[in-house]
């Protein structure tokens, strides 16, 4: 009996490991942007599209990938997507232009989604009754979130060893391991969930059009200064028209892709709002990454090492939050811990944005962020799935993804970038106005800088110009520091606000309810 349990645990571990490369098809190449810019030399706008398109392709293919993952024989599916991943990943090495590279990366993202769903099916069928959904969600979240940061760290190191192609070779090795694992663990080639294939193709096309409009807004909204540009205004108008077309389409479709009936469940509506809220809180991570790279001058390896602190936080929080869910602890307790950790993360960084900030200043705040992620994400996925019948599984999944990934993380991140730029300009203008003869400290600093350049042998005019430029650069760095401090102060208030609402209105004083739909840890 003990040998049987040991064998079962070994098989379960192997099946989970099999999912990891598919989760990280894009993560391993996260830190190669500067090298790709040098290799393909695209315009800024073209490169923005190059970053966004594979992500949108992956999200758009989710519903069809979920359907295919249940229809085709599992062993055949895993071997096929592993081989296709090898093919598309290798093809990206020989892409002559950025457009071909994006096509290869997008195809890789699409087949990775099918691989995730196909590799999840045996785990769900064989082990879910014994583990229950709380443990299942927790394990998948630990694998997905944990491997994400580990792969980004490995990818950054491979890029630093030689160039961006090393990350591609590393990912190919992973897909080869997938093929070996599939041959070993999938003895029977069956499609256990196969039913009559029905898919809302028309609704899917409308959804892709909806995503394409948001892709345009994300890639060009900031450069076009949003609603001041007529094309952006027109895009927003088409966004609402597309929603109207989809609602009209639903009236004439028996099984729509996103069924409005799912919104009869209050937890889906509240859960979508929470997912959006979480996406906003989590989205400020791009601010820190940009600050490390663009202002502090961190290289990709140092940035990746710093972000391993998130992995430490996840290793602490996901097992603990999963245990609490399994033991049916009140939802309010888990929400409060998660929001509090996100609040501490933002308020700590607010006090650490100062001249001379170093990599070590980011470690503790990012650990708190990792802890917050580990408490918030599993309970969010469980809560939005609570009581939803299996036939509405895709509707629930796409509602959460559109709220968190599309609106909060992608579109919200683009808006946040514009907001930071405007705040930076305002602070720089205010600081520049203080650089006058009345400001004795600034005048003294300018004079000292000028003397230094004169000592280096520059002429009086050249020394004056260099000194003014040096002072202007210091003003720019001070202004971006102030802009980030403003953002993180506001975000800390936003993070602590739900805690007061939960306590005042006595919300979620109950354990998680029944969850029957598949865990989609994306």
Automatic annotation (TrEMBL):
Record carries keyword Transmembrane helix: yes
Membrane topology: Multi-pass membrane protein
Subcellular location: Membrane
Top-rank lineage group of the source organism: Bacteria
SUPFAM superfamilies: MFS general substrate transporter
Predominant location: membrane
Alphabetic keyword roster: Membrane, Transmembrane, Transmembrane helix, Transport
Transmembrane segments: 9-26, 46-66, 78-101, 107-125, 166-186, 201-219, 231-248, 268-289, 301-323, 329-351, 363-385, 397-420, 487-508
Keyword Membrane: yes
InterPro entries linked: MFS_trans_sf (IPR036259)
PANTHER family (UniProt xref): MAJOR FACILITATOR SUPERFAMILY MULTIDRUG TRANSPORTER MFSC (PTHR42718:SF9)
Full protein name: MFS transporter
């Amino acid at each position: 009996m003990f040998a049987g349990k040991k064998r079962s645990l070994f098989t379960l571990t192997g099946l989970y490991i099999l999912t990891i490369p598919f989760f990280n098809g894009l993560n391993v190449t996260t830190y190669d942007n500067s090298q790709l810019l040098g290799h393909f030399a695209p315009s800024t706008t073209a490169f923005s599209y190059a970053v966004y398109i594979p992500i949108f392709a992956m999200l758009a293919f989710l519903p069809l990938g979920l359907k295919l993952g249940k229809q085709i024989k599992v062993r055949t599916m895993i071997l096929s997507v592993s081989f296709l991943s090898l093919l598309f990943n290798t093809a990206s090495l020989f892409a002559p232009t950025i457009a071909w590279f994006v096509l290869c990366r997008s195809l890789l993202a699409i087949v990775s989604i099918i691989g995730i769903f196909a590799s999840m099916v045996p785990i769900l069928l064989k082990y879910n009754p014994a583990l229950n959904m709380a443990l299942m969600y927790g394990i998948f979240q630990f694998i997905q979130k944990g491997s994400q940061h580990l792969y980004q760290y490995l990818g950054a190191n491979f890029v630093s060893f030689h160039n961006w192609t090393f990350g591609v070779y590393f990912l190919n090795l992973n897909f080869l391991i997938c093929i070996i694992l599939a041959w070993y663990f999938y003895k029977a080639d069956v499609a256990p969930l196969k039913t009559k294939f029905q898919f809302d193709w028309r609704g899917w096309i409308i959804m892709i059009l909806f995503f394409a409009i948001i892709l345009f807004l994300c890639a060009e909204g900031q450069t076009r200064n949003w609603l001041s540009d007529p094309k952006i205004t027109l895009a927003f108008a088409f966004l609402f028209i597309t929603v109207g077309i989809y609602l009209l389409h639903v009236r004439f479709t028996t099984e729509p892709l996103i069924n409005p009936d799912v919104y009869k469940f209050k937890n889906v509506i509240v859960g979508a709002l929470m997912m959006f809220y979480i996406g906003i809180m989590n989205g400020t991570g791009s601010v820190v990454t940009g600050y490390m790279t663009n202002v502090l001058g961190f290289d990709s390896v140092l940035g990746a090492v710093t972000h391993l602190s998130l992995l430490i936080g996840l290793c602490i929080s996901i097992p603990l939050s999963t245990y609490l869910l399994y033991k049916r602890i009140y939802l309010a307790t888990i929400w409060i811990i998660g929001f509090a950790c996100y609040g501490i993360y933002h308020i700590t960084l607010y006090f650490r944005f100062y001249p001379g900030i170093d990599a070590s200043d980011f470690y503790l705040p990012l650990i708190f962020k990792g802890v917050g992620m580990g408490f918030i994400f599993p309970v969010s996925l469980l809560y939005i799935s609570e009581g939803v019948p299996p036939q509405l599984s895709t509707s629930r999944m796409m509602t959460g993804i559109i709220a968190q990934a599309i609106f909060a993380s992608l579109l919200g991140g683009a808006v946040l970038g514009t907001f930071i730029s405007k705040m930076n300009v305002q602070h720089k203008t205010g600081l520049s106005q203080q650089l006058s003869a009345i400001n004795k400290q600034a005048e003294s600093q300018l004079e000292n800088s000028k003397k230094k350049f004169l000592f280096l042998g520059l002429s009086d005019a050249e020394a004056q110009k260099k000194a003014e430029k040096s002072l202007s650069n210091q003003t720019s760095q001070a202004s971006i520091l102030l802009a980030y401090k403003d953002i993180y102060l506001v975000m800390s208030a936003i993070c602590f606000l739900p805690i007061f609402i939960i306590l005042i209105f006595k919300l979620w004083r109950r354990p998680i309810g029944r969850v029957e739909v598949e865990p989609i840890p994306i």
